[in-house]
Specification:
There is one protein chain. The chain contains 8 helices and 12 strands. It has about 260 residues and is α/β, with parallel strands linked by helices. It is globular and about 55 Å long.
């Protein structure tokens, strides 16, 4: 014999598995990391008591202003990120939910990731040095460049390293500083030809830059829209695609002549 449930009874029966599913989803770990603005460092100066850029084999200029590389801080790969964490981050302007593989593409454990990030940083420093010396046509002059930046991995400081080397060796090319005395921040990978690449996490990096006193932010051209999404008030975006373009934009900004690109 068959019996029929009333509508309230049917809804109650259906609600039970749905509630159980939601509870399971809320407790289950998700393949995401939660990121926030990280530290910044002036590549023209010191970081944790160590000079970031050291150059030998050529005269080095005294510089003013700052060139600050920027970072994000993300939950470690072994941190459990659940639905409540994701929801909280969606409603926060200083946090972002990112696919874990976008933050940690190199492995599942902390040791593997640290090794990968150190390797990426070393490769980025080598490329940044070659890019700067190539730009200055001084790649055969016997100039030795050492870059040191503690507790930071990955390739996203490449552009700022290159600009720091150019500023220390040549400035704006006519006796002035690339920064014009400003606090300039930015992000971007770079290859030895001087091509600037995208990095991710730009809205969080603009917040870190503003927090640490920057008024200008150099952003890879492909990430203009991302940078504008949560742009802090008073921070000027300058999109760049090459080292040469970045130098020219800063010189034009310093001298008040020529075109300074904008997003």
């Amino acid at each position: 014999m068959l019996s029929r449930l009333t509508r309230p009874q049917a809804l109650a029966v259906l609600a039970a598995p749905v509630a159980a599913l939601l509870a399971t989803a809320a407790l289950a770990p998700l393949p995401f990391s939660v990121a926030q603005p990280g530290m910044t460092a002036d590549v023209l100066g010191e970081n944790k008591g160590t000079q970031v850029i050291t150059i030998s084999g050529a005269p080095v200029r005294e510089t003013s202003g700052q060139l600050r590389m920027t970072t994000i801080e993300a939950t470690s790969p072994d941190t459990r990120v659940g639905l409540p964490d994701v929801i909280d981050s969606w409603f926060s302007t200083d946090q972002a939910v990112m696919p874990r593989e976008a933050v940690y593409p190199s492995g599942d454990n902390v040791k593997e990731i640290e090794q990968y990030n150190r390797k990426q940083m070393k490769a980025s420093q080598d490329e940044a040095t070659r890019a700067a010396l190539n730009y200055l046509n001084r790649d055969d002059d016997g100039i030795d460049v050492t870059l040191r930046l503690a507790d930071v991995g990955g390739p996203s400081a490449g552009l700022l390293f290159s600009l720091g080397i150019v500023d220390k060796l040549d400035g704006d090319g006519s006796g002035g500083d690339l920064t014009g005395g400003r606090v300039v921040a930015g992000t971007g990978t770079i290859d030895e030809k001087g091509t600037v690449g995208a990095v991710g996490g730009v809205p969080l990096k603009t917040q870190a830059a503003k927090r640490d006193g920057a008024t200008v932010f150099l952003v890879p051209g492909a990430e203009c829209a991302d940078a504008q999404a949560e742009l802090p008030e008073g921070l000027r975006l300058i999109p760049v695609t090459t080292l040469r373009g970045a130098v020219e934009a800063l010189v034009n900004l310093e001298k008040g002549t020529g075109r300074v690109p904008s997003c």
